[in-house]
From TrEMBL:
Record-annotated Response regulatory domain positions: 2-115
Name of the molecule in the record: LytTR family DNA-binding domain-containing protein
MF terms in GO: DNA binding
Pfam families cross-referenced by the UniProt entry: LytTR, Response_reg
InterPro entries associated with the record: CheY-like_superfamily (IPR011006), LytR-like (IPR046947), LytTR_DNA-bd_dom (IPR007492), Sig_transdc_resp-reg_receiver (IPR001789)
PANTHER family linked: STAGE 0 SPORULATION PROTEIN A HOMOLOG, TRANSCRIPTIONAL REGULATOR-RELATED
């Protein structure tokens, strides 16, 4: 069986691939794709796999943009961090969903369901999923409650320059250079914030468009960013994200 994994977090994708090979060593993972753009390009240039594992929130957009650009008849098992009560709204005859973190037991049940349904993926289920997760009026986080010593304060999202991760702690940096620890991971923040305003530059930085001061070409494959306020380390856009980053800037 040939499979592709559409997931923007390498560790999550690697774990899913490991679970698949534990379930059946003959499963062949053809590709791990982190974005809508990469997935569309891959699907346009390769034969369809037998099964797709698809995260809902990808690094450049919701996964539904894939279906708008290519015609797929492939069964899909969605992976999602959404609570189960939300997922029930679209669990009809689609292959299945897996809540993160994915367990071996959950994966095994989904694969058994796939074997019994073989290419009976329903467009109706996709439409229902779109209504729950991808509705045009999707709400994004407007402010953060921050604990500073014994005080509580709120930070408006519009005040945020960027978020960064250091030694497993996430920090919010305001435009006036206040650096405050928060209780959200960068993965979680990526799904909570408006993708028109924030971009996941790399594993350590999630940046607001308004904080970008200058962009420099660094070698032939990277971009180097100057941010305001200055971060404590250099910030790069990797080769894999350069095209997506430029599209984000030009949107």
């Amino acid at each position: 069986m040939n499979v592709i994994i559409i997931e923007d977090e390498d560790l999550t994708a690697d774990r899913l691939q490991s679970l698949l090979q534990k379930y059946d060593p003959d499963i062949n993972v053809l590709a791990q794709l982190p974005s809508v753009q990469d997935t569309v390009q891959w699907l346009r240039t390769h034969k369809e796999p037998d099964l797709i594992f698809m995260d809902i929130h990808l690094e450049d957009d919701l996964c539904f943009r894939i279906f708008e650009q290519v015609s797929l008849s492939v069964p899909v098992i969605f992976t999602t961090a959404f609570d189960e009560y939300m997922v029930k709204a679209f669990r009809v005859n689609s292959i299945d969903y897996l809540l993160k973190p994915v367990s071996f037991e959950g994966l095994s049940a989904a694969m058994q369901k796939y074997q019994s349904m073989k290419r009976q993926f329903s467009q109706t289920d996709l439409d229902a999923l779109r209504q729950v997760v991808g509705r045009p009026q999707q709400e994004f986080k407007n402010r953060f409650l921050i604990t500073v010593g014994t005080r509580l304060r709120t930070i408006e999202t519009s005040e945020v320059a960027y978020f960064y991760s250091e030694e497993k702690i996430t920090f919010l940096v305001t435009r006036d250079n206040q650096r405050l620890p928060i209780d959200y991971s960068l993965d979680k923040l990526t799904s909570m914030l408006n993708p028109a305003d924030f971009f996941r530059a790399n594993r350590q930085f999630l940046i607001a468009m308004s904080c970008i001061r200058n962009i420099h070409t660094y070698s032939s494959s990277k971009l180097k960013l100057e941010l305001q306020p200055d971060p404590r380390e250099e910030v790069f856009i990797s080769k894999e994200k350069v095209s997506t980053f430029k599209d984000w800037l030009d949107a």
